[in-house]
Amino acid sequence: MLLAKEQQVYKQLDQVYDPELDQPLTELGFIDHTKIDGNQVQVVFRLPTYWCSPNFAFIMAEDIRTSISQLEWVREVKVNLIDHCASDEINQGVSKGKRFSESTSRFGASDGELDELRRTFQIKAFYAREEKLIKHLLAQGLSKEAIIAMTLEQLHQLPLTEEGQNMRSRYVEKKAQLNHAGFWAFTTPEGEALTPEGFADYLLGAKRTRLSMEFNGHYCRGLLEARYDLEATVTEGT
Questions:
Q1: 147 Cβ partners below 8 Å, 6+ apart?
Q2: In the listed set 84, 109, 134, which residue is the last one of a domain according to the structure?
Q3: Confidence of residue 108 (pLDDT cuts 50, 70, 90)
Q4: pLDDT tens digit string along 151-162?
Q5: Are 56 and 138 contained in the same domain?
Q6: pLDDT tens-digit series, residues 27-84
Q7: Are residue 221 and residue 141 in the same domain, yes or no?
Q8: Which pLDDT belongs to residue 98?
Q9: Residues 15 and 92 placed together within one structural domain of the fold
């Protein structure tokens, strides 16, 4: 029974992403361990440096608590950020359901700034996920014109490989987070249609965003591995 609960907890944690890197905390190695006691769950997580942005750390802690709380059998979630300059403030604030400004007043950031930061990261993740999916579709033989003209319904009906299905699911998820209610499958983060004239430049900009995020991800993994003397991870080249 405990093993089943642990598996459920980690399945939820697989859906919690570093906001800046758009990668699961589980893949990044940020989850140190979990502890389950009846219907109480404690999640202990760590970051690459002592001075990692408190804003980012708070977002991750809050998202961990929200995600684990969705399990029907869970009654209490304790998030424990360790080895960080704002561990005490973040842990206490998130556990009590406080806003960022209430929890970390000494760092001077407002709730509005944190919400704006979340939005910025959502847009960057949108660019990265969209570029990867479009690149995949182009490699599958779809033309630029077909991609631009594709509706969201057509995208859902498109027969894709398992890899392509995963890319599509991740991209559509981000569209939903940005409240896209439009007709077209591929748009700007603001929901505006792409054009044939601007397609190449748009895709290049999205690629640069993705590469920057992936580079930062490799860098953070390296810092974490060095800090905690972990075995180096091997990731695919880009």
A1: 134, 137, 138, 185, 186
A2: 109
A3: low
A4: 999 999 999 999
A5: no
A6: 999 999 999 999 999 999 999 999 999 999 999 999 999 999 999 999 999 999 999 9
A7: yes
A8: 87
A9: yes
For the entire predicted model, the pTM comes to: 0.91
The verdict on 91 and 150 lying in the same domain is no
pLDDT at 237 over 50: no
Considering the domain boundaries, does residue 233 fall inside one?
no
Distance of alpha carbon 212 from the chain centroid: 15
Residue 52 placed within a domain: yes
Q: Are 95 and 79 in contact (CB under 8 A)?
A: yes
Asked whether residue 117 is assigned to any structural domain, the reply reads: no
Q: Give a three-class secondary structure readout of the chain.
A: CHHHHHHHHHHHHCCCEECCCCEEHHHHCCEEEEEEECCEEEEEECCCCCCCCHHHHHHHHHHHHHHHHCCCCCCEEEEEECCCCCHHHHHHHHHCCCCHHHHCHHHCCCHHHHHHHHHHHHHHHHHHHHHHHHHHHHHCCCCHHHHHHCEHHHHHHCCCCHHHHHHHHHHHHHHHHCCCCCCECCECCCCCECCCCCHHHHHHHHHHHHHHHHHHHHHHHHHHHHHHCCCCCCCCCC
Q: What's residue 69's pLDDT?
A: 97
What span, in angstroms and rounded, lies between the C-alpha atoms of 211 and 6?
34
